[in-house]
Design brief:
heterodimer, A: 215 residues, mainly alpha, globular, B: 10 residues
Chain lengths: 215, 10
């Protein structure tokens, strides 16, 4: 564990906490894309299939449980909680997210490190995570009405991706044989998707103004 | 064995 990896995990954790705080305390999910949250739930479910069979550390298992539990509970809140679900921007959040899954699955079947059930699903989760933010970014662009918590949630998620890239660079230079092209390229694509959002986030932060995206 | 390294990430 290096400092970049830890910082990445902590920003990831913080992003989830910010979102849960918004949903649980303010009882609102306005501006949050259910499509993206459903994709994340699938990402964690397929990536952490090995949670019972392979043990790395208590830290890892605990974090996996947190990400699984939080992603499914966020989906539950948005779909079924009587107050929260009323605040969901159903009409704006129309990205056809299921269509992202098929290409990711096909790509995972074609490009993977090992052709086994667990390995293909694990690779699928990497590809799907790379594009899972798209419905959220489209929703932001449409509503243009971004409250602070939603902005911070996406900012922290992007931060998590950025720190993971630094972690990979660090590990590449400090650990022999640490080469994982699939993880890196999927991670890089994912981080690039945030670039536009980051640009406007920093602009609003610099000018001390509310975050607004151009039409 | 190399592959196990990646699995230690989240």
């Amino acid at each position: 564990m290096n400092i970049f990896r830890l910082a990445g995990d902590m920003t990831h954790l913080a992003s989830v906490l910010v979102l849960l705080l918004k949903i649980h305390t303010i009882k609102s999910c306005a501006g949050v894309s259910l499509k993206t949250q459903e994709l994340y739930a699938i990402v964690f479910a397929t990536r952490y299939l090995d949670i019972l069979t392979s043990f790395v550390s208590i830290y890892n298992t605990l974090m996996k449980l947190i990400f699984l539990g939080s992603s499914f509970s966020i989906v539950w809140y948005m779909k079924y909680h009587k107050t929260v679900r009323r605040t969901y921007d159903r009409d704006q959040d129309t990205f056809r997210h299921w269509f992202l899954m098929l290409p990711c699955l096909l790509l995972a079947l074609l490009i993977h490190e090992k052709f086994t059930f667990f390995e293909v699903l694990w690779t699928f989760s990497l590809y799907l995570e790379a594009v899972a933010i798209l419905p959220q970014l489209v929703l932001l662009q449409r509503t243009r009405n971004i409250d602070n918590l939603t902005g911070q949630y996406i900012f922290l998620l992007g931060g998590y991706r950025g720190f993971y890239i630094l972690n990979w660079i660090y590990r590449y230079f400090t650990e022999p044989h640490y080469v994982h092209w699939i993880t890196w390229i999927a991670g890089l694509v994912q981080t690039l998707l945030y670039a536009d959002f980051f640009y406007y986030y920093f602009l609003s932060w610099k000018n001390n103004k509310k975050l607004q995206l151009p039409a | 064995e190399e592959h196990e390294e990646t699995k230690d990430e989240l």
